[in-house]
Design brief:
The structure is a homodimer.
Chain A (H helix, E strand, L loop, with lengths): L29 E4 L2 E6 L14 H23 L12 E10 L9 E11 L2 E10 L2 E12 L7
Antiparallel strand pairs in A: 1-2, 2-4, 3-6, 4-5, 5-6
Chain lengths: 153, 153
């Protein structure tokens, strides 16, 4: 199954968080699950803060790219367009807010679930929650802004 | 000169963002500059979002660890204690909010400057700004919480 990120044009597929062509990066893959979006990601042993727990900056990164991907997919859907149809829709982050609800255990696969809160012109607000073994450990919100066509050209 | 992070006890020096013992991580180093704190960091070529610009998740990570380090140093200072004196003071992130003011060019060394907004019991609020070639490109705020003594033990 193709992930949202598989539809990004080649020149916009180098993001450290979600670019399929960034071999050093996280290469997250995001999918629809009904009205929600879902990404699964297993941190590396070195993605730690305090031993035994996941680094908060990684969680912020996962929330960030999960939400910008969700913003793109939701906008295609709202416009009744197939993902990947021209012109490409790609979003950058205007603001990222994360609350760390409890320590996230390092080891298990994490699930990030997203929900679109608002689509308004070129701005999409997406909320995401990180779960470890079914427990919500972090929650974030991203204000995603549609990228100017000239950006990355 | 010793950075704030050089005073962290060994078991708390593994953080991906600021742990001197995490060989895969960013190993940021933070210092006082008068009443402000400063970290300098040069992203790797693969820390990209759109080609030519720095990945926002990295900027969030730098702000995060810069601010928790600042929270520790400011608390030692407020208590009139030398950094590294026992018991160790170490902070975790309760909330992280970042506004991306403009694209951050990838290449030049970045400067992150921090300022303590509030010290209240075990909670310290720190504001940080990222500069590239003298231009502020991102601004963030961290609510840092003093780590329970049992954490990471």
């Amino acid at each position: 199954m193709k992930a949202f990120q598989d539809y990004y044009p080649e020149n916009l597929s180098h993001c450290y968080g979600c670019g399929s062509r960034n071999l050093h990066g996280h290469r997250i893959r995001t999918f629809w699950d009904g009205e929600e979006t879902v990404t699964r990601f297993t941190p590396e042993p070195y993605h730690t803060a305090v031993p035994g727990f996941v680094y908060g900056g990684l969680l912020a990164s996962l929330i960030d790219c999960h939400c910008t991907g969700t913003a793109a997919a939701a906008t295609y859907r709202a416009e009744g367009r197939e993902m990947g149809s021209e012109p490409p829709l790609r979003f950058v982050t205007g603001a990222l807010n994360v609350s760390y609800l409890k320590p996230t255990p390092l080891g298990p696969e994490l699930t990030i679930r997203g929900r679109v809160k608002e689509i308004k012109g070129r701005k999409v607000v997406v909320e995401a929650t990180v779960y470890a073994e079914g427990v919500a450990t972090a929650r974030g919100e991203v204000v995603a802004l549609q990228m100017p066509e000239t950006f990355g050209a």
